[in-house]
Structure formats: C-alpha cells, structure tokens
Amino acid sequence: MAVRGARAKPARFRRRVLQLVREKYGEGEGERFGPTLAAEHLASEDGMKIDAETLRRWMLEEGLWRRRRKRKPYRQRRERRRHLGELVQMDGSFHNWLEGRGPEGCLMNMTDDATSEVELRLGEEETIWAAANILRAWIEKHGVPQALYVDWKNVYKRAPTQREQLRGEEPVTQFGRMCEKLGIQIIAAGSPQAKGRVERNHGTHQDRLIKKMRRKKIGTDEQANEYLQQEYLPEHNERFRRAAAEGEDYHRRAPSEAKLREVFRLETERVIGNDWVVRYDNRLFQVQAQSRKWAPAQGQVVVCEWQEGSIEIEYRGRKLPWKEILGREVRVSAELKSSRLFRVTACAAP
Fold first, then answer.
1. 346 φψ region: left (φ > 0), alpha (ψ -120 to 50), beta (else)
2. How much is the pLDDT for 191?
3. Which pTM value belongs to this model?
4. Residue 245: DSSP 8-state
5. What confidence score (pLDDT) does residue 205 get?
6. Are 107 and 205 in contact, with CB atoms under 8 Å apart?
7. Residue numbers of the chain with a pLDDT score lower than 50
8. 3-class DSSP string for 195-209
9. Among 123, 156, 173, 217, which residue has the least CB neighbours within 10 Å?
10. Cβ-based neighbour number of residue 263 at 10 Å
11. For residue 154, which of 170, 169, 172 has the smallest C-alpha distance?
C-alpha cells in the first residue's frame, strides 16, 4: 500500500483541479493550456493554488500533457547587451491571432535585448505605419533606444538600386529616415536565428496571448490592443522581465510631441513644375502665388504626409501654401508608385 506524503494534496483537490483543466483550459492539443499557464489561471480565476511542476506531473499522469523533446540549439546564442535601451529587437508575426473571431493579422513586437521588456501592437500588416506606431509607443514609455535589430525587409532596410550603387549612396527607407532623425541605428539581422529573443517571444505570445484573448472573447484589433496595454503587457513584463547586467539606462529622453510629429511622417522629394504644380500620389497641388518668390519653378520640395492623411509641402524647411487641383487625372510614374509602397516584402541581404 502506497504511503501518502505529508505534503501531498488531498485526492478531492486533485480531482477538482484536473476537472477544471479539462473543462476550462482546453481538451484539444492546440487549445490546451500548458501546466505553467494553467496553474496561473487556476490561482487567479478559480482560487486553487498549485505549483506548476505538481500540475505538470498530474497532467502527464492523466494524459493531459506530453513531454516535449528539447531540440539542440541551432547555433551558439548571442550574449545579451548589457544595458536597457542599448539594443531593441523589432519584428512582426503573422498569425491567426483572433482564431476566426476577427481577421488574421500581424503582431508587431519590440523586445529589449538586455531585459526582455516587451511592447506589442496588433494590426493588419507589417507596414511602415505599423513599425512607426510601435516605435513611437516604445519611445513614449521608455525614451529613444540606441539601436534597432530588424529583418532585411524593405520597410526597415533594403538593397541599393543600381543608380545608388553607382553613386555610392546608402539606401534609406522611410522608416530608416525616421530612425535617422531620432539617432537610432538600424542593424539588419543576417538570419531569423540572430533575432532569437524576439523570435522566441513570438512563440510565447502565440501560446499565452491567444489563449487569454480566447477567454476574453476578443474579436477586433482595437479590443486586442486595449487588452494588451491594460492587462497582458503589465502582467507579462512583470513575470518575464529580467534585470540588465548593468544598471545604466541607455535610452535617450523622448522628444516633444511636436518633434515626434515631424519625425513620424512620410517625406517624398518632388519638383515644382513650371506652372507651380507639384504632382504627388496621383494628385495635383497648386503652390500659391505668394510663396513663389522663395519657391521657384523647378525647385526641389518635400511633400510630407502623416498617417491620418494630412499633407504639407516644404521648400528648404519652410511650409508652402497650396491648393489641390481636383477633377484631373495624373499619370503616375513607376518611381512614384514605388515610393508609395507600404506593404513589407523580404529582401535578400547584399
């Protein structure tokens, strides 16, 4: 006859715990909560505190969990940076985050290399604006990081064109220009494995976040982002954040709102026509007469566009008054179409 240990849980307690695991925390292989996550929810939702390792053993005995073989590391893991804000990894994860309750989307993920501090935002695509919005959210919370570690995707880094190669010019994307204004270095990873921390982070969120949003019946990106900011991120960072090797914070102070507005915009160079018309994105903008004395025909201007669609035209840093010409079709050049491409595509590293 087996002898029960002094610290053994009552059989009734065990039966109740396993019943809750079956009924509330998933029967299906893809839906089942792992022992650690299930133990957290048993404590927070059901008032039943149990050690995750004890629960793991019970679930294994009942066939509710399987041991997973740990694969050998693909390569030697890169040592963490030693300071908060010294290097932040950024990536997007395409997945069925809402499990059919809403559209598939892309979870933008920023992870501090030294501490594993995380910022998340769910949207439709991995676009310039998706990258800009999560970077701005990070800056408003922490300040300006020293460097970003990203993929070779044309929203972050791209290979030079033939003309740029001949001129010896470094190609800069719209997002790259934003980072230049902030003094942020962009480092392109040579492989997904090189961004190990943010890649492993994706897997964690594809397990924990999906299951938590399922229980909340979240069905839109707006609901998901509200839940991320109010509940998920504070809890996740409290649980998984670690102390940096060195205490000094390498973030620089966040710029003012006015300065951030000047940074997070699209900027496209155009030439003023002989009729003082600027062509941009299949639209015509008539530069007003009072500005012609310091904005000559054939002069180079910068068309600035914000996410909400507002537009300004600048000549040597000064704003030009303009009026849109409506009702006329404009022939869009291949160059203009290229400059307006927002969706991310992968690029091969040179």
1. beta
2. 60
3. 0.74
4. S
5. 92
6. yes
7. 1-3, 6, 73-74, 332-350
8. HHHHHHHHHHHHHHH
9. 217
10. 18
11. 172
The contacts of residue 276 (CB under 8 Å, 6+ apart) are: 286, 287, 289, 292, 295, 297
What is the pLDDT, as a whole number, of residue 155?
A: 85
Whole-angstrom distance, CA of residue 21 vs CA of residue 77: 35
How far does CA 346 lie from the centroid of its chain?
A: 16
- Look up residue 108 and give its two tokens: 């933008």
DSSP string for residues in 215-244 = HHT--SHHHHHHHIIIIIHHHHHHHH----
Cβ(107)–Cβ(227) under 8 Å? no
Q: How many CB atoms lie within 10 A of CB 267?
A: 16
Question: 189 is written with which tokens?
Answer: 């990873």
Tokens of 101: 């309750």
Q: What is the pLDDT of residue 328?
A: 62
Q: With b meaning 16 or more CB within 10 Å and e meaning fewer, what string describes 78-100?
A: eebbebbbbbbbbbbbebebbbe
Q: Which residues pair with 105 in a beta bridge?
A: 95
CB under 8 Å to 148, separation ≥6 — which residues? 87, 88, 89, 90, 135, 156, 179, 184, 185, 186, 187
